[in-house]
Amino acid sequence: MSYVVSPYAVDLEGLRLIGSYGQEFVDDIVRSAPANVLERLDEAEDVGLTPGDVIRQLLRGEPMHRDFGPSYGHALEALCRHSGTQLNNAHWAGMRFGYFALVQNALAEIGVDFDPSELVLSGSPVNLPEIEDFPSIGYLDNREIKSLAEIFADADLDRLADDTVRASVADLVEWLRVCQDNGTGLVCFYY
What we know:
With 191 residues, the chain is of the alpha+beta class. It has helices at 12-15, 23-32, 35-39, 51-60, 69-83, 98-109, 118-121, 142-154, 163-182, and strands at 3-10, 85-86, 93-95, 136-140, 185-190.
């Protein structure tokens, strides 16, 4: 089985307004979410919660069911998709978790000290019930993005020997550029 990193350039301060969104905004997200996104929220149907209920609980600050952290994680992704910009992940799809270490080792060989698994393991930018499995969530704020962009700007990425790794790193550098240009944070989901 292969997995994917789904990156979003999104206003972190806007995300942190969770709990203050109105029902109209909740309805907009439910209407605009693609069917495959809403399907990821159906785990909570076991206790009678629809995908719309899960999104409403998250965005309106209602009590969340502690056993359905993954559903709320996917609801957060629906918010990022609605309020942010989904970034190109062509070279971060169809992968296994070990790919992060492959990229980290390749970067280390050219003098870049960065563990790309931090992109999906640093945790959610908002409080969610515990997620034991998927999605894994991570984020970078503007300060971290600037620092990481400087590291990559100083590196000779052409020295990366593996074409696939070089393409993945190019995607990452583009994510950082878009976030810097737009003054947004970066939120990544892995599933």
